[in-house]
Prior knowledge:
By secondary structure, the protein is an alpha/beta fold. The protein folds into 3 domains: 2-98; 106-257, Heat Shock Protein 90, CATH 3.30.565.10; 270-416, Response regulator (Rossmann fold, 3-Layer(aba) Sandwich), CATH 3.40.50.2300. It is 53% helix and 19% strand. It has 15 helices and 12 strands. The strands form 2 sheets. Strands 1, 2, 3, 4, 5, 6 and 7 form a 7-stranded mixed β-sheet that branches. Strands 9-8-10-11-12 form a 5-stranded parallel β-sheet, with helices on both faces. A hairpin with a 4-residue loop joins strand 4 and strand 5. The relative contact order is 0.10.
Amino acid sequence: MADNENTNNLSTEDFSGEVNSSSRRSEDFFSYNYALSLLSNVNHELRTPSGAITGYLHLLENAGLDPKQKKFIDLIRKANDRINKIIGGVSDFCEYSRGEVTLCKAKFDISNLPRQLSASFDDSAREAGCSLCVPHLPVEPQLVHGDEYKLKQALSQILSTALAHSKNSGIVIALEKKMRAGNEADFMFTVSYEGIRMREDISATLCGKALSNMAVADEIIFKVIYSKKIISAMGGILEFNEKKSGGMFILTVPLEVCAVQETEKNAPAQDSAASINSKLNELSGASFQILLVEDNFIGRKLIKNIIESIGWKIDIACDAFEGLKYFESRKYDLILLDIQLPDMNGYEFTQKIRAGEAECGGPETPIIAVTAYSLPTDREKCFAAGMNGYISKPISIENFYNTINDVLKKHLNKMSQ
């Protein structure tokens, strides 16, 4: 069995002679980079159809289905969630393989993370015969400044690893805060589980030891290494305490604590469905004219249906040049923009829009990227080009509504000053 496990590991013993060794290494380097590029492109192309499935499932929910049809919808959603997790895993690997972890910091409520993690792993835990418990969370929001997405990534990898080692038992996700000097605090997440002992190479990796040649290059090892890399980039640490039957992951990150406004303090916690309905009520109370620039037929149809379900009007351009013609012909309240477009990409389109607005001295039209480019560096590039918001495919309906709502609110507040 050990021989089979090591078939994917390269060793200097595999090479014979300096010339052959140099040639083999060049071929391996080329093959690796080609495979990484191919994997990245496949991941990119999968995001649009997967996002379409998510969006149309949401629209079907509000189409007056009978109980049996609703059950079918729920099963399709669960299957699509699994596909999205695979897509997310491929994105993680591609980013990890490119080197540094890029952080995008913003204000978020850290007290919600344990509940969100529990909800996202509920189905997986149930299938494994495990239960997830989130005890003693603070009632009021705990607003911090940091990278919520990356922190979720690291915690998800750890929870997934704990779930793989649990055996018909419970997993407890807890959060504690310890104030430091000034407005900083250490936030400690613990993930405790009962089950089988951690594999020796995984345990060694968690304890900071170098991987041996006998280490198995599998998904769990990658999750542990990637989580440690993310937490290290945040200035935190990931520890593991092994027990006789199970163990405890301890993830500690230092974050800047933000002041909580009264409106935020009194806002009740909402589940995903309630949050979507709340945002829908806010959005449907106004009338906006939207311009969508998207070259993918399925993507165009999906966003058109979502926007029209809110009660707004929408014009659709199939490429950037058509989008510019639409923009020159009428006033728009918001532009939803794909990035990978034929002839002119979304970055160039935005720069042309901003240059024209600056020349005329008029207000900037809000632009939100709706793109399959999903890395943090892609997000930064969108904002650097002059965009006001960013939505990654596969589209999360909740995130779609939240982003549009936030961008339009900021724009309207700026216009009223």
